[in-house]
């Protein structure tokens, strides 16, 4: 994606203070804004960021909803787990668990789902949705959404597995009551996503029909309209919006929609740039402009209600290396993605912060973004200052709240604290 507007550069060597996790009872309900965070089923592997860390960092106390990523859709249109071990088989020790009690041999439900069950006892207002699809799990959405019969069968399969709790290999209803809704992450209707995804021009109308089928079956299951949350992850690119989404119709059935507020630019391009600017920066040589302002305006102008529009924010950075040492590294050619811990060109906030002293922080206070540069390596930079800026923008525009990708990037809770504190 790409972008542009006006900018004022401020350079500063910066030390970000560590924020100690604050108990849940210390947080008042000072805002009616949603704070939605994605927790992934791979967070507990290399990152070792467990569900219990949501408590330890104070994240759980600041969240209104967790989206658990991801459940997949198979070639027949049925819901399937993407990682059964992480989801409901992995046993946790007392030290690793939310409630301080170890999973026992022969226990029916283990894994992240059992930890979520305990988390909801601790935070009864917290809602959890199963997120379906994602970048690597959206290959068969188009087939599932193709006909009234395929849509009905797909939705029935997904509600049976995730809301009724009928997981493969477990007793019927073993995971019932853990999820409070469904989050649809079809990436993307009628537009190219991961190579190999099925794409059809009629995906646009079929996605609307699929969302309506979800709402219909969710309301029937609950016996009370609107009891279960139904949300969707929506693209930033206005061209993709118009190709794949009937915005006004969708929001009639959605509880809310979350916008892609990041990946406007990244190391798949050779030129350094911002990835989550509020407005487009002056001097951006790329077109068309990509920014949160462009995205939010696109949805509002197409009929999305403000209070149902939740803006995405990143807890990670994109980076380039071999960058020309000019303009503080911004809008400069590179030789490729910067080396990183898990994936070249992408680094968690907490990991990059540990090397902050190696860089100078630059801020564009008019366009609303920051970056790091050391003369050869460039990283986008969403720190507490930028999280506060984004929260104030969300509040100023009276949007429905903020969505985080993803919670494991904020290993000590300082980003979500800044975000939560500035939402009004």
Tell me the β content: 15-25%
Distance between the termini: 29 Å
**Strand arrangement, major sheet:** 2-3-5-6-7-8-9-16
Largest sheet at a glance?
A: 8 strands, parallel, barrel
What is the CA-based Rg, rounded? Answer: 21 Å
Q: What general form does the structure show?
A: globular
Structural class determined from secondary elements: alpha/beta
Question: Could you report the average pLDDT, rounded to the nearest whole number?
Answer: 93
How much helix is in the residues? 25-40%
CATH architecture title: Alpha-Beta Barrel
* Discrete helix count: 13
Number of domains: 1
Instruction: Give a count of the beta strands, DSSP E runs of length 2 or more.
Output: 16
* Element order: H for helix, E for strand: EEHHEEHHEHHEHEHHEHEEEEHEEEHEH
EC number: 3.2.1.14
Protein name: chitinase
Pfam family, one: Glyco_hydro_18
Family: Belongs to the glycosyl hydrolase 18 family.
Mind explaining what this structure looks like?
This is chitinase. Pfam families: Glyco_hydro_18. Belongs to the glycosyl hydrolase 18 family. Its EC number is 3.2.1.14. The chain is of the alpha/beta class and 424 residues long. It has one domain: TIM Barrel, CATH 3.20.20.80. It contains 13 helices and 16 strands. The strands form two sheets. An eight-stranded parallel β-barrel has the order 2-3-5-6-7-8-9-16, surrounded by four helices. A hairpin with a 4-residue loop joins strand 14 and strand 15. Helix 12 runs parallel beside helix 13. It is globular, with a radius of gyration of 21 Å.
């Amino acid at each position: 994606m790409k972008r542009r507007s006006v900018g004022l550069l401020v350079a500063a060597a910066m030390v970000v203070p560590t924020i100690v996790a604050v108990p849940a009872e210390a947080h008042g309900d000072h805002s009616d804004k949603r704070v939605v965070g994605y927790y992934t089923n791979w967070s507990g592997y290399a990152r070792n960021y467990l569900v219990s860390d949501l408590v330890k960092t104070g994240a759980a106390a600041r969240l209104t909803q967790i989206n658990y990523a991801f459940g997949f859709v198979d070639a027949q249109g049925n819901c399937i787990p993407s990682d059964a071990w992480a989801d409901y088989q992995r046993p946790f020790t007392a030290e690793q668990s939310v409630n301080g009690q170890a999973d026992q041999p022969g226990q029916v439900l283990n894994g992240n789902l059992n930890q979520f069950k305990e988390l909801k006892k601790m935070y009864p207002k917290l809602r959890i949705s199963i997120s379906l699809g994602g970048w690597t799990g959206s290959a068969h959405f188009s087939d599932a959404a193709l006909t009234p019969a395929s849509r009905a069968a797909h939705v029935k399969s997904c509600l049976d597995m995730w809301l009724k709790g009928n997981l493969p290999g477990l007793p019927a209803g073993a995971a019932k009551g853990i999820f409070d809704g469904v989050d649809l992450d079809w990436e993307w209707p009628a537009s190219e996503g991961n190579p190999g995804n099925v794409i059809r021009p009629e995906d646009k109308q079929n996605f609307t029909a699929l969302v309506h089928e979800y709402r219909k079956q969710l309301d029937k299951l609950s016996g009370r309209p609107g009891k279960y949350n139904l949300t969707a992850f929506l693209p930033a690119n206005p061209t993709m919006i118009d190709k794949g989404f009937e915005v006004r119709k969708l929001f009639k059935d959605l509880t809310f929609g979350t916008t892609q507020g990041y990946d406007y630019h990244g190391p798949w391009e050779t030129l350094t740039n911002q990835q989550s600017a509020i407005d487009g920066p002056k001097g951006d040589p790329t077109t068309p402009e990509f920014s949160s302002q462009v995205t939010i305006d696109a949805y509002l102008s197409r009929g999305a209600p403000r209070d149902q529009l939740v803006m995405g924010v990143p807890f990670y950075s994109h980076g380039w290396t071999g960058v020309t040492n000019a303009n503080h590294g911004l809008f400069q050619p590179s030789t490729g993605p910067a080396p990183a811990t898990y994936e070249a060109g992408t680094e968690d906030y907490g990991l990059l912060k540990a090397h902050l002293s190696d860089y100078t922080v630059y801020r564009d206070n008019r366009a609303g973004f920051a970056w790091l540069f050391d003369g050869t390596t460039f990283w986008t930079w969403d720190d507490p200052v930028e999280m506060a800026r984004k929260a104030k923008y969300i509040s100023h525009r009276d949007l429905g709240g903020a969505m985080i990708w993803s919670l494991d990037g904020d290993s000590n809770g300082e980003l979500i604290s800044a975000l939560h504190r500035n939402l009004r």
